[in-house]
Amino acid sequence: MNIINLILYDILFEAKQVGLLYYGAWEESVDKIIMTDTIRSTYRDTHEDEVSYKLGIGNKEYTSLSRNLNWVRKTYGIIFVIDGNKLSQKYRIVPFNYAPYDYGNSNADEMEERVVGQIKPLSKYLIKIIVDWDMFAKARIKPNFNLLHNIFKNKKIEHLAKTAMGMDYKRSFLENNDEFNRK
């Protein structure tokens, strides 16, 4: 194989490397996400900067994902882990930096990735769902265990719990739902 063939091979067969992406939600919206197998576009780009328009996302609806799991864990109790490499084969994924707009707020470390449009079918890109029971405890939200059981049926789940109340929630859920006693 000569150098030109190697370059062509790389161009044709090398997929964009995005890595894992995270989408956070609470149980009320998770039910709708699982039932429709869709993460709906919930935002519209309002930053009238020339970068958004050069990237082709100016004034378009998008879904906000993050590359920073710790940032998502600070805000949400349920986190969808998505295969960004596979997602990038069908969707336009654009990195976004809040720094010019944030004025010292906490969004600067979010590592946001914007997916133009809604993500459907989500199941094609979903790696697993993380349930952070500590976030439910911190937000003083008593989980609806029956709803969560129906939502998570046949899904790969990772349970996180370090605080006493988070561990109580996890224990309560797993005691009544034997098929989720996986991790």
Provide the succession of SSEs: HEHEHEHEHEHEEHHEH
Provide a count of the helices.
9
User: What Rg do the Cα atoms give?
Assistant: 19 Å
- The side-by-side strand order for the widest beta sheet comes to 1-4-7-8
Q: On the 0-100 scale, what is the average pLDDT?
A: 76
Cα distance spanning the termini: 47 Å
What class do helices, strands and sheet pairing give?
alpha+beta
Percent helix: 25-40%
Beta fraction of the residues? 15-25%
β-strand number:
8
The geometry reads as elongated
Low-confidence stretches: none
- Major beta sheet, specifics? 4 strands, mixed
Summarize the structure.
Helices cover 36% and strands 22% of the residues.
Describe, in plain words, how this protein is organized in 3D:
The protein is elongated and about 60 Å long. The model has no long low-confidence stretch (mean pLDDT 76). It is α+β, with helices and mostly antiparallel strands.
Please give the structural blueprint:
Elements: H1 3-13, E1 20-25, H2 27-36, E2 43-44, H3 50-54, E3 61-66, H4 69-73, E4 78-83, H5 84-87, E5 93-96, H6 99-102, E6 112-116, E7 126-132, H7 133-138, H8 145-152, E8 157-160, H9 164-176
Parallel strand pairs: 7-8
Antiparallel strand pairs: 1-4, 2-3, 3-6, 4-7, 5-6
Helix pairs in contact: 2-8
Offer a few descriptive terms.
four-stranded mixed beta sheet; 36% helix; four-stranded antiparallel beta sheet; alpha+beta; 183 residues
